[in-house]
């Protein structure tokens, strides 16, 4: 499903953020990427949906050679991959539902010419996604009225409404307290298991990674230094 073959990523400032990465991730896996700040975790995740372009090697995602995608193909490709950030990236002064509906904006100008039936379809998808993360009751509440954990669930619902095959999560609980973190991690786990959506999560809480992920990948100075099934790691400890 995702395959890195001798992937390197060098930023324009000549920092080698990824060095000869070889990695295979199957559909439905829950992978935690751990490592110190600056190790290359975020770069690794962001190459998968081409937020960052790799410098050399080959990256195959969902049967596509990511570096070879052009124009429209990039947009279509990105819609198959959800992305969750530490900072939620929501429009806080409007409602939860509108924030989820934002994910359909690329289609809206086309839809405006039509009868509105598609808008209804989008609304149903958006409300279904809110239900999947347990915040349907907040649909018409403004985002700035919600707690951090609830806001991250709105971001998760926005992503889910696109029916992604993969969700990339870049430090999704870094700004949440432990109780809220657990609720959000439970959501990720449920989505992963019930919907068979792959989750690749960059996280610095090792104990949470061990508790939730199927597999742990350790990154240091741009290289993979560790890659094993969580159950095995836990047994070793
Ligand atoms: P992590 O997510 O593990 O903290 P990053 O992938 O963000 O690591 O960073 C890996 C290395 O690449 C670091 O040395 C960082 O300073 C550098 N880096 C990250 N993003 C950029 C960028 N946009 N331009 C230049 N260097 C960057
Ligand atoms: P706008 O009226 O600017 O489109 P709203 O925030 O009022 O934005 O609503 C976004 C969508 O959700 C609209 O299509 C609206 O019909 C629907 N909506 C808003 N509030 C409710 C509500 N309380 N019950 C059901 N649907 C609502």
TrEMBL record:
MF GO annotations: ABC-type phosphonate transporter activity; ATP binding; ATP hydrolysis activity
Give the Gene3D superfamilies listed for this entry.
Answer: P-loop containing nucleotide triphosphate hydrolases
Query: Start and end of every ABC transporter domain?
Result: 2-237
Enumerate the InterPro entries for this protein. Answer: AAA+_ATPase, ABC_transporter-like_ATP-bd, ABC_transporter-like_CS, ABC_transpr_PhnC, MetN_ABC_transporter-like, P-loop_NTPase
- Pfam family of the protein (one): ABC_tran
One cellular-component annotation, GO: membrane
Q: Which UniProt keywords are given for this protein, alphabetically ordered?
A: ATP-binding, Cell membrane, Membrane, Nucleotide-binding, Phosphonate transport, Translocase, Transport
Q: Which NCBIfam families match?
A: ABC_phnC
What is the protein's name according to its record? Phosphonate transport system ATP-binding protein
């Amino acid at each position: 499903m995702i395959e890195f073959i001798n992937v390197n990523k060098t930023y324009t400032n000549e920092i080698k953020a990824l060095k000869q990465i070889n990695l295979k991730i199957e559909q439905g896996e829950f992978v935690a990427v751990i490592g110190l700040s600056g190790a290359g975790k975020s770069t690794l995740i962001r190459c998968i949906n081409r937020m960052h372009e790799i410098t050399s090697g080959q990256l195959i995602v969902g049967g596509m050679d990511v570096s070879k995608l052009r124009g429209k193909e990039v947009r279509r490709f990105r819609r198959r991959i959800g992305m969750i950030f530490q900072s939620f990236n929501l429009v806080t002064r409007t409602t939860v539902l509108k924030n989820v509906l934002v994910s359909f904006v690329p289609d809206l100008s086309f839809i405006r010419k039509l009868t509105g039936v598609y808008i209804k379809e989008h609304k149903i998808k958006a409300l279904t996604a809110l239900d999947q993360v347990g915040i349907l009751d907040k649909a018409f509440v403004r985002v700035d009225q919600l707690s951090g954990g609830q806001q991250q669930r709105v971001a998760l619902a926005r992503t889910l409404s696109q029916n992604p095959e993969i969700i990339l999560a870049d430090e999704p609980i870094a700004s949440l307290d432990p109780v809220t973190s657990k609720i959000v991690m439970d959501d990720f786990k449920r989505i992963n298991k019930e919907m068979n959506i792959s989750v690749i999560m960059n996280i610095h809480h090792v104990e949470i990674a061990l508790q939730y992920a199927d597999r742990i990948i350790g990154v240091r100075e741009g290289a993979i230094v560790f890659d094993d099934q969580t159950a095995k790691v836990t047994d070793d400890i």
